[in-house]
Amino acid sequence: MTDTLVQATNIKKSFGDNGAVDGVSLNIAPGEIYGLVGADGAGKTTTMRLLVGALRPDAGEIQVCGFDVLKQVEQARAQIGYLSQRFSLYEDLSVLENIRFFAEVRGLKSNEWQPRCMEILDFVGLADFKERRAGQLSGGMKQKLGLASALVTRPRVLLLDEPTTGVDPVTRQDFWQLVIKLVGAEVGGGTGRQVDTYTGTHVDRHTGTQDRPDLRLSTFDLRSDTQPISQLPISDLRSSSTSVIISTPYMDEASRCHRVGFMKSGKIIAEDTPSNLRARLNGRVLELRGHPINTLRHVAHQDQDVEDVAAFGDKLHLRVKENAASKVMERLPNEIKAANATLHELRAVPPVLEDIFISLS
Questions:
Q1: Cis peptide before 249 (omega within 30 of 0)
Q2: pLDDT (tens digit, 9 = 90+) per residue, 198-218?
């Protein structure tokens, strides 16, 4: 089996003077969940459309499962399942009719797609709604139907373009459990800890701290520590035949991916495992609480060692220069007091992916 299911080399795409994708390269391994993360307009959707062959690149090469997307587009597409940002199925058709349509368009015979359809509907939780019209489904159920339609041909590569945007938090969690199961994970008990796929390092989901190596990957459920998580030995993961590329604006979803690529202005400006990305700001993030928050923000911005200040709910995260955290923590209380503001708490905290995203943006 090939070590790479998707290989894109220096792909570019412009629309007039707008360079939507500018030199993106990707190498996606079997069994890998890869996250494309970026603000609106960063180039995530255009990259997805280039990978699936819906757009022709101005430059660069793309191979999917060994097939050249430019020269062998039909063979490449036969390996791909694609779920677009917007619901694009037929609302007047039932759930089952939609899946049947896409199965037969892709050349599956009735004795192939019928058992496969019921298997998929059970998998995504729509078996009891197979006769319901797609237009009568909720937003989350429509996304599950889109996933079911994408899976009917047993793709080796699944492209998901912001699949959970606009759906409720519970549905987001359920959708991710489906993605986790799709790459071959087993359901087991959880402890609220995650193991980085590539480094084998434990990462505490609450603190971001890392400790001893382990041989198992754990993808956690954010709802509670007692919820089931999916576990898969790293050796099995690397040999799995299904890969997922998912674009998302949500950092909690990005943290569930094996690797993450941050996009900005059509370029991938950073790519690594979530834990390695967070490690870039170790010792450089302070959390500040107090009031009035606008005064605190202004005071923090004035400090010579503070590079940036970002709001995190009712708190502020301060990104400080390297080896400057202790100096800032010594100075800032007096500076806040001098500005007639109230300090409730100032402490060093482990960086989260939001901190990385903001620093890269």
A1: no
A2: 333 333 333 333 333 332 233
Choose among 187, 217, 190: nearest CA to 206. Answer: 190
∠ Cα 204 123 183 (to 5°): 45
CATH 2.40.110.10 holds for 6-79+155-186+233-279: no
Question: How many residues does the structure list for the chain?
Answer: 361
- How far is Cα 312 from Cα 283, in angstroms, rounded to an integer? 18
CA-only gyration radius of the chain, Å: 23
Judging by beta carbons within 10 Å of its beta carbon (0-12, 13-18, 19+), is residue 128 exposed, middle or buried? exposed
CA distances from 183 to 76, 124, 158, 252 (A): 20, 14, 10, 19
Q: What residue ranges do the domains of the chain occupy?
A: 6-79+155-186+233-279, 285-360
For the chain, percent of residues with pLDDT exceeding 70: 83
- Integer Cα distance of 282 and 275 in angstroms: 10
Closest among 243, 234, 193 to 216, alpha carbons compared: 234
The CATH architecture of the domain made up of 285-360 is 2-Layer Sandwich (3.30)
> What's the distance, CA 277 to chain centroid?
14
Mean pLDDT for the chain overall: 82
Residues 6 or more apart whose CB falls under 8 angstroms from that of 210 comprise: 196, 201, 202, 203, 204, 275, 279
Question: Within 10 A of 135 (CB to CB), how many other CB atoms are there?
Answer: 12
C-beta separation of 275 from 267 below 8 A? no
Query: Cα(254)–Cα(257) distance, rounded to whole angstroms?
Result: 5
Strand order in the sheet with 59-64: 18-28, 6-15, 59-64, 67-68
Kindly list the strands in the beta sheet with 157-161, ordered across the sheet, starting from the edge strand earlier in the chain. Answer: 80-83, 157-161, 243-248, 33-37, 259-264, 267-272
Do residues 306 and 316 make contact, with C-beta atoms less than 8 angstroms apart?
no
Give the model's confidence band at 2: pLDDT under 50 very low, under 70 low, under 90 confident, else very high.
low
